[in-house]
Design a protein that fits this description.
Mean pLDDT: 83
Shape: elongated
CATH class of the largest domain: Mainly Alpha
CATH superfamily of the largest domain: ABC transporter type 1, transmembrane domain
Oligomer: single chain
Length: 579
């Protein structure tokens, strides 16, 4: 229940709609409860005495109550819809906002498919809790309490019948709910698996087709889908038992009331209208119990989804800002001081061990090393995408943990090997770097990134639509657009993580020449080609998470075995290492 309380706090401006909807339900229910009394009076004092005037008055009163109940019901639907869909939107907004504050390590704790389910399916379940559950939640207690009171007022002896039967129904419903509650959590996890299968196979559709593994991909989806189907069927097969249980109790109550009520009518202890009105209250009481059972079913499912949502909302970010963070990075100088790093505290070995070096502002630095040597892990510590396990990373003369994350990351640009372009035009994507950038500024960075030529060839140039994920451009073009986008943010430090791997050596040379013109920016190149770091001020070579050697490119042939091996391998492979 604490999870529900946490989420109800998100009602915010829709709280008023929520309570107004409850008020209209209460009014509607009260009006409905008056109708059986009117029916009894209509029969006993109108029909039995053939008083047309009395019957007319009672009939008009009943019509008025029905119309008022209809009006309040319509008004309830309007306010409940506003509250439900508004609440659902606020839940999704809160989750999405929370995800934006997550570090990479925080996101690693949740699977992407699970986060999608929590933002969509789980939020919809909570939304339905109001749109479908608010009405019975208010009506059922009122119908139960007032129905019992009024039925006892009409005939206490007959009322004892459903007072005996009601607990039996309650016990049966409790047993059903206790069985079905754990299954709802399993169903939501099964939806996670289905989303995971769809997301993974769509993202890797080219690989699936390249290896002709469509049938295998279908089998994986079928397995997840069948598991969801099985759990859904099992859950519903138990949940629907509440209807037969309700019907058995309801018809048993009606038979017993008709039996004993008929005897009382024969002995003139009960009027026809009184028995008719009493039966109406009995039906309302039993219906209220059924509504309560449905509310408990809905609440049970809501609790499972609420817990999953609150897990996201209350997951403490692993990266915390200081109380008075620095808002400006002085320059692009970088220093690693005895840095040790591992992705998880449970990991037995460090990804990076005892890393120490310094880079002056405006320097160009190359980082080389084999696969798994820790190159990408090292540079991700500079904008504090991850925190060091021990030691310190200093940027602009201050520890990165002393800066606000937004100011630090605005000063450190990263161009990855696989960059994401967004749906929209080239101009839209460029303005991710600087939303206020003019077309002239955009063309300037496109020229530096050797992207201006192909952009000019597109219909509409800057207004050319890149499609979802940049599907309308090649891999090399996507990399160059990503470089231009990062340059547009004018960072003090820019990191190129093998970001020219999809371009030819001549284009790479043009990009390097363009970047050399940006003197005030510190540039770090992670590369596989010696040519990419040949013009750097210094080269850092990593091996198994350690620094193997540091030096100028012209002295690395003597200082570094790894550098020499890469040089010789690429020379034999036909690379022009002199460029």
């Amino acid at each position: 229940m604490n999870d529900l309380k946490r989420l109800f706090a998100l009602l915010g401006k829709y709280r008023k709609d929520f309570f107004i909807a409850m008020l209209f339900v209460a009014i509607e229910t009260s009006l409905e409860l008056f109708i059986p009394v009117m029916i009894a009076d209509l029969i006993d004092y109108g029909v039995m005495t053939k008083d047309i005037g009395y019957m007319t008055v009672k009939g008009l009163q009943m019509i008025l109550c029905a119309l008022l109940a209809l009006t309040t019901g319509i008004l309830y639907a309007r306010f409940a819809a506003r509250a439900a869909y508004g609440w659902g939107a606020e839940i999704r907004k809160a989750e999405y906002r929370k995800l934006q504050s997550y570090s990479f390590s925080d996101i690693d704790r949740f699977e992407t498919s699970s986060l999608v389910t929590r933002l969509t399916s789980d939020a919809t379940v909570m939304q339905n809790a109001i749109s479908s559950g608010l009405r019975p939640l208010v009506r059922s207690p009122m119908l139960l309490i007032l129905g019992v009171i009024l039925s006892f007022t009409m005939n206490a002896e007959l009322a004892l019948i459903f007072i005996v039967l009601a607990p039996i129904l309650g016990i049966v419903l409790f047993l059903i709910i206790s069985r079905v509650a754990p299954l709802y959590s399993l169903c939501q996890k099964a939806i996670d698996r289905v989303n995971e299968s769809v997301e993974e196979n769509l993202r890797a559709i080219r690989t699936v087709k390249a290896f002709v593994r469509e049938e295998y991909a279908e089998d994986l989806f079928d397995s997840a889908n069948d598991n969801l189907r099985y759990l859904g069927m099992k859950t519903n097969s138990i949940a629907v038992l509440n209807m037969p249980a309700f019907l058995i109790i309801m018809y048993t109550a009606i038979i017993l009331i008709m039996w004993f009520g008929g005897e009382k009518m024969i002995s003139f202890q009960l009027e026809v209208g009184e028995l008719t009105g009493f039966l109406s209250y009995v039906m309302q009481v039993l219906n209220s119990l059924m509504l309560i059972s449905n509310v408990f079913m809905l609440l049970t499912r809501s609790l499972a989804s609420a817990h999953r949502i609150v897990e996201v909302l209350e997951s403490a970010p692993s990266l915390e800002e200081s109380e008075n963070p620095l808002e400006e990075v002085k320059d692009g100088s970088i220093e690693f001081r005895n840095v040790f790093f591992r992705y998880s505290s449970k990991a037995k070995e460090y990804t990076l061990s005892d890393i120490s070096f310094s880079i002056e502002a405006g320097e160009t630095v190359g980082i080389l090393g084999g696969t798994g040597s820790g190159k990408s892990s090292l540079v991700q510590l500079i904008p504090r995408l991850y925190d060091v396990s021990s030691g310190a990373v200093v940027v602009g003369g201050s520890d990165v943990r002393d800066y606000s994350l937004s100011s630090l990351r605005r000063s450190v640009g990263i161009v990855l090997q696989k960059n994401m372009l967004f749906s929209g035009t080239i101009r839209d994507n460029m303005k991710w770097g600087n939303k206020e950038a003019s077309d002239d500024e955009i063309w300037n960075v496109l020229k530096i990134a050797a992207a201006d030529d192909f952009v000019r060839s597109f219909p509409g140039t800057l207004d050319y639509n890149l499609g979802q994920g940049g599907v309308n451009v090649s891999g090399g073009q996507k990399q160059r657009l990503s470089i231009a986008r990062t340059l547009l943010s004018k960072p003090k430090i820019i990191i190129f993580d093998d970001s020219t791997s999809a371009v030819d050596t001549d284009t790479e040379r043009r990009i390097r020449e363009g970047l050399m013109g940006i003197k005030e920016c510190t540039k770090i190149f992670i590369a596989e080609r010696i040519s990419s770091v040949a013009s750097a001020d210094k080269v850092i070579v990593l091996a198994d998470g350690h620094i193997e050697s540091i030096g100028r490119p012209d002295e690395m042939m003597e200082k570094s075995r790894i550098y020499r091996e890469i040089y010789e391998a690429q020379l034999k492979g036909g690379y022009d290492v002199s460029q």
